[in-house]
Amino acid sequence: MFDLLVRNANLPDGRTGIDIGVTGGWIAAIEPKLGGEAGHVIDASGRLVSPPFVDPHFHMDATLSLGIPRLNRSGTLLEGIALWGELKPLLTHEAVIGRALRYCDMAVSQGLLAIRSHVDVCDDRLLAVEALLEVKRLVKPYIELQLVAFPQDGFYRSANGEANLLRALDLGVDVVGGIPHFERTMTEGAASVRRLCEIAADRGLQVDLHCDETDDPMSRHIETLAAETVRAGLQDRVVGSHLTSMHSMNNYYVSKLIPLIAEARIHAVPNPLINITLQGRHDTYPKRRGMTRVPELMAAGINVAFGQDCCMDPWYSLGSADMLDVAHMAVHVGQMTSLAAMRQAYDAVTINSAKAMGIEDYGLEIGRTASFVVLQARDPIEAIRLRATRLTVVRAGKVIAQTQARESQLTLEGRPASLDASTYAPPLGG
Ligand code: FE2
Question: What is the CATH topology of the domain spanning 53-357?
């Protein structure tokens, strides 16, 4: 007797006709044609049932603040940072919590149930830190929220960057952040990488740096991060976020760099929506794409996960907590159009992201928490193509969100029709 039984699911790994039995919030069985009774049955009818979406890079202290106090006119990263600096003194505890909770509601509706958010520690009040720690407690029943102590104005460049980062960690922030390319000099950037890795090693924490988010091919802090990761024994516990300078580096240097990243077992987290938007702003034509070398990193065995980074904030006016939107953009910007590459793009917003965040209780396997999403699509590629509707979102065996299937009624003269967007997809071969 199961509490919940999902019938006839397609799984992201290609298995079809699978039933998932849930007992006490856990996956108790997963195989074709399970027998037995169930308190509640979801008929997936050959649709994709996926582990939840995971966003390994976000800024929840800034989200949904678009237009406060003004819009970003140049569209650059640097004006975004300046604009955030104007907004910071205006933040209130209640407003940060209110916007973050609204965003988390949006995330749940999109089947996004784990988020790593950076939180700016360069405000001596640590107002956003305290607000997001509160949000973390509030959403714990349905979203796993990790927080990164992020010195937005520079670990050394801002007056109290180091002291505030340590205070934030003392308050319970989970991960050590940094922004070496924004320090005053390359030397200070490298020094910040070394110090941040030492802090993480001392405290047994993970590291997640905004690293080389620039079009400058000489921004090579990822090289230092790889070396310091090995020196501090932090393999598997370090994320290099963005890594956009790698887009502009020369191929010879990259041929040395990628093996160093692989050796250090650093997770790479590009943010396709933001990288394609913010990078190349100083170019005339041709304009660089800016996203790091995703297929090459993946081919080297490096774990690559895609983040959303921003949603309606000083850096980006769009976004809807939809990790399929992120994967869709990555497929285009990275020219990841083979069937295998599109499936890898799906993994990059699900299992690879969970790995980058160090989430162990994840995935559709017996003994794992029963959290999953039923999509209006038959497989991961169709899900990306359609940015498929998330029909049912389940967290620990309980349905926490439902959305009506997208279906259009056409009233064309002589051609009345009912159209489910997914019905036009041809069967996909290997
Ligand atoms: Fe970011």
Answer: TIM Barrel (3.20.20)
